Amino acid sequence: MPRKRTPSAILKSERTPEEKEAAKARSRHLADRRYRRKLKYNDPDKAKERMKKKRSERTEEEKARDQERRKVYNGTYYLKKREDILDKQMKERARFVL
Question: Which domain of life is it from (predicted)?
């Protein structure tokens, strides 16, 4: 028995060559942006300075500052995003499983 295809897979298979190229360009652009953002927040000199102290020897203020920096880099909490993604996926699945 063939597997059920998702709506995104169906749409993807129906793309024209121009649409495929546009999707690849979007993907390249997003990857480039991710890379530049990573470089911006991961300055090697700052990282060396931060890691001079052992984690256990850092003050609460330093820990909080680094945690805020990580939040900014990640954009949001992982679990919150994960829950949103799973909720959306379940709604889509319920629509097509009927």
Answer: Eukaryota
